[in-house]
Amino acid sequence: MASAVLDFEKPFVELDDLVQETQRRITEWSPQLKLELRELKRKRIKLYREIYPRLNSWQRTQLARHPERPYTLDYVSVMCEEFTEIHGDRRFRDDPAIVAFLARMGRESLVIIGHQKGRGTKENIYRNFGMPNPEGYRKALRVMQIAEKFGLPVLTLIDTPGAYPGIGAEERGQAEAIARNLYEMSCLKAPIISLVIGEGGSGGALGIGLSDRILMLESSIYSVISPEACAAILWKDKEKAKDVAQALKMTARDLERLKIIDEVVKEPFGGAHRDYKRAAHIVRRVVRRHLSELKGLPVDELIAKRYEKYRGIGVYLEG
Amino acid sequence: MGNDFNEYPMWFKIKKKPQQIITDKRLQIPEGLWLRCKSCKEIIYSKEVERNCDICPKCGYHFPISAAKRLNLLYDNGTFEEFDTNIRPDDPLKFKDRKKYKDRLKEYREETGLFDAVISSQGQIGGYTATVCAMDFGFMGGSMASVVGEKITRGIERAIRDHTPFLSISASGGARMQEGMISLMQMAKTSAALTHLSDAKLPYISILTDPTTGGVTASFAMLGDIIIAEPKALIGFAGPRVIEQTIGQQLPYGFQTSEFLLEHGMIDMICTRKELKQVLVRLFVFFNQK
Predict the structure, then answer these.
(1) What is the mean pLDDT of residues A114-142?
(2) Å from B77 to nearest chain A CA?
(3) What secondary structure letter does DSSP report for B138?
């Protein structure tokens, strides 16, 4: 499975592969193998605890951008019993960098909107590396308004390097598209949950990220600017990105401490990319828990609470 | 408030060397008396520029001006009440690049006399009371972090309380990196606050000046009921350099200017600094918010 293994995850990945291999071999009754497996699993937990809690911000960034990390489509296909993709902003064109679904999860209907990166060069070009154009944000808003109309909750999955900086994007009002989403989402009459599954790239992420609950996967990042760009501007040195990642406080744990996000969602052993299915099941469970909490609230209270949440963000001195 | 004579340091830097060649003392010009227009390169009398709302009398180029000066030009008799003056930036991330964020803040404070990149104000414009938040590009590139977000939000709240139109005058490079995600979330906060202004049926007029980019454009600045831009201002989401690097080619002439935005339907009109007040009063009359 692992074709792209990061340096720091190598020892764990090797052991994990061995565990999986052993597990596969246990088809007949073999007590020796079972013992071996138990021992290996014990080792795996130990190694996991040694490596993963101590990952620094840059390593988290690398995991968040891991080429094998599950994307929106991967989550939706496991999480939902049924899902129908819907397309287009009804104004210009369909943006493949943002996908939208009418979905069923358990006994509930909901809409899911997410950034979509591609795998491999060809698909990545099609998906524009997960960088939306204005029509992507407008499609997202259109779908959210469907949810509002039919009283359904909205789940947004965030995974983008940022909104696309291109000529067409500027011509069609990239800034306006994002601003409009912020405005409309802040008073949308439907519960909104957003989950950062990989990269939360600045305004491009926030454009579908204003919500009642902001969740982040353990190894995802959410930042005002990419560490590379920040290093280039403030240090005039792109190589400083590693230090910048630390300084920007962009990991899930950092942002939980800063009270920007509501919950850090655990990933399976070794990260979401090691086990898509389990990752999706964890996400499903967490999302359903939050949904059931939010569903009990009257709409007015929901929107008032959402407003208070963002109204309260900011650290300054006064007096 | 404004220290208006330090406005154009670039010109002096460029001009210094050739000036040393002139030995005849009679030919030396006292500093600050003459300016070179950044656009048409003509030498112009600085007093004349000042009298002309800091617009080049030859080519109409709008010199960048401080927030305080903008407000002086806008309000009747140049008088207004400033509020939220005691909100000051903190350093939530303990951020340090080549310099500490705290030290940077201190430097800008000394340079501009401001605590942060926005002035909140209320006063009479053509006899109509208005609440205006004006950004100052001179303070860390007009970047938006906690203080800017909070002051704009409070400005909107005050407009609702006092039942006045709300105006923002933007000049910003975007969200401030040094406060990380807290800066980004100010986009959400200010945009959300504007929904309350709408509920109160009060007009929001957004004025865009050179330059307005990034997180400010992608939040409150583009949400005006009416959006007005100064001529030839740079307005966009991504900066032109970022776009050039991404697409690997030079940008067409006039890309991301006010005129470009007007053509693409992103703004309502372009107004010179001189006409602005007149246009605003006309809008106030229309919206009937005496």
Answers:
(1) 96
(2) 29
(3) T
pLDDT of A19 strictly over 60? yes
**pLDDT tens, position by position, B216-258:** 999 999 999 999 999 999 999 999 988 988 888 889 999 999 9
Q: So what's the pLDDT on residue B5?
A: 47
Q: Give the closest residue to A61 by CA, choosing from A221, A244, A228.
A: A221
Q: How far apart, in whole angstroms, are the C-alpha atoms of residue A96 and residue A115?
A: 9
The better pLDDT of the pair A76, A48 is held by: A76
Please give the sequence-ordered ranges of beta strands (E in DSSP) within chain B, or none if there are none: 34-36, 43-45, 81-83, 87-89, 118-125, 128-135, 166-172, 204-212, 226-229, 269-270
If one counts every other C-beta atom within 10 angstroms of the C-beta of residue A246, the result is 15
Question: How large is the angle between the packed helices A72-79 and A276-295, nearest 10 degrees?
Answer: 70
User: CA of A94 to nearest chain B CA: how many angstroms apart?
Assistant: 20
Nearest CA in chain A to B89: A316
- Which of A152, A140, A149, A157 lies closest to A286 in space, CA to CA? A157
Three-point CA angle A71, A75, A80, nearest 5°: 150
The 3-class secondary structure across chain A, one letter per residue, is CCCCCCHHHHHHHHHHHHHHHHHHHCCCCCHHHHHHHHHHHHHHHHHHHHHHHHCCHHHHHHHHCCCCCCCHHHHHHHHCCEEEEECCCCCCCCCCCEEEEEEEECCEEEEEEEECCCCHHHHHHHCHHHCCCHHHHHHHHHHHHHHHHCCCCEEEEEEECCCCCCHHHHHCCHHHHHHHHHHHHHCCCCCEEEEEEEEEEHHHHHCCCCCCEEEEECCCEEECCCHHHHHHHHHCCHHHHHHHHHHCCCEHHHHHHCCCCCEEECCCCCCHHHCHHHHHHHHHHHHHHHHHHHHCCCHHHHHHHHHHHHHCCCCEEEC
Q: What is the mean pLDDT of residues A154-177?
A: 96
- Residues of chain B neighbouring A163 (CB-CB closer than 8 A): 218, 237-238
* Alpha-carbon distances, residue B286 vs A143, B203, B277, B289 (angstroms): 35, 10, 14, 8
Burial (0-12, 13-18, 19+ Cβ within 10 Å), A48? middle
Domain range list for chain B: 1-61, 64-287
pLDDT of res. B245: 87
- How many angstroms separate the CA atoms of B141 and A183, rounded? 25
Structure tokens at A88: 């287009």
Structure tokens at A125: 């070009």
Inter-chain residue contact A316 with B147, CB threshold 8 Å: yes
Within 8 A of A202 by CB-CB distance, chain B residues are: 175, 184, 215
State residue A99 phi and psi, 5-degree precision: -115, 155
- % of chain A at pLDDT higher than 90: 76
- The CATH number for B64-287, chosen from 1.25.40.10, 3.90.180.10, 1.10.10.10, 3.90.226.10, is 3.90.226.10
% of chain A beyond a pLDDT of 70: 98
Residue (of A48, A53, A50) closest to A19 by Cα position: A48
Task: Pull the structure tokens for residue A265.
Answer: 């969602």
Would you call B191 and A183 a contact, using CB atoms and an 8 Å cutoff?
yes
Average pLDDT over residues A124-135: 96
pLDDT of A1: 43
| B24-56 residue pLDDT tens | 555 555 667 888 888 888 889 988 888 999 999
